[in-house]
């Protein structure tokens, strides 16, 4: 009988994990779609937005560093940066410590777009969370932060 109970607990745990994975997948898809809708009002593509976001959060970086963060080939990232540079969102600058190194620098227009889109995304999420209590939101945020930390450490 004890073995049967352990199997039920394991199955319940597996079901909870399956439910969490499914919910995260659905939430991710909804956020991605909402993000694309918001970007339709701007002259940038979703990959350009992701690149701008990395530059906004982490500062200047090389094509190689940006490629690694975006999981793209360097040639693809170079094309992406070329288009963003033509639209005055970023500029290539020589590293002052090593002139052989070229870094991508976020310009004011790129920063403005990132700031606006992120605020719109936050407003969307705020509207969704209106039916959550303050305590539920705090617990949710802590749990998401913990999940993110565990995933980053892996």
Fold and architecture overview:
The chain is mainly alpha-helical. It has 2 domains: 1-41; 44-153, Winged helix-like DNA-binding domain superfamily/Winged helix DNA-binding domain (Arc Repressor Mutant, subunit A, Orthogonal Bundle), CATH 1.10.10.10. It contains 6 helices and 2 strands; from the N terminus they run H-H-H-H-E-E-H-H. It has helices at residues 2-39, 46-58, 63-70, 74-86, 108-128, 134-153, and strands at 90-94, 102-106. It has a two-stranded antiparallel ribbon with strand order 1-2. A hairpin with a 7-residue loop joins strand 1 and strand 2. The model has no long low-confidence stretch (mean pLDDT 92).
How would the blueprint of this fold be written?
Layout: H1 2-39, H2 46-58, H3 63-70, H4 74-86, E1 90-94, E2 102-106, H5 108-128, H6 134-153
Antiparallel strand pairs: 1-2
Helix pairs in contact: 3-4
Output the radius of gyration: 21 Å
- Just name the CATH architecture of the largest domain: Orthogonal Bundle
Uncertain residue segments: none
What summary fits the major beta sheet? 2 strands, antiparallel
Strand content: 5-15%
In DSSP terms (H or I, runs of 4 or more residues), the helix count works out at 6
Summarize this entry quickly.
By secondary structure, the chain is mainly alpha-helical. Helices cover 73% and strands 6% of the residues.
Considering the chains and any ligands shown, give keywords for the structure:
154 residues; mainly alpha; Arc Repressor Mutant, subunit A; 2 domains; two-stranded antiparallel ribbon; 6% strand
